[in-house]
Amino acid sequence: MKKISDPYFRIPEHIKPIEGGPVFDPALHLQLEKPERIYSLEDFGHTKEAAAAAPFDLAVTTPFRLLSDLGVEALKESIENLKGLRRKSERMANFIRGSIFYSPFIKELCLSADVNNFIKSMTNSSVLPHPMGLYQGHINLCPEEEGREVDRWHTDTVTLDYVLMVTDPKEYSGGHFEFFQCTKAQAIRSMIRDEADPHIVKVEFPKAGYAILQQGNMVVHRASAVSKGVERTTLVQSYIPDSTNFNDVSKLDDCKLVDPHDILFTEWARYKAFLSQRKLDHLIEKLPYCLDKNQVCMELRQAIRDVEEAILEISDPNDGRLVHLAQDALTDLL
Question: Domain boundaries in the chain?
Answer without folding.
Answer: 26-246
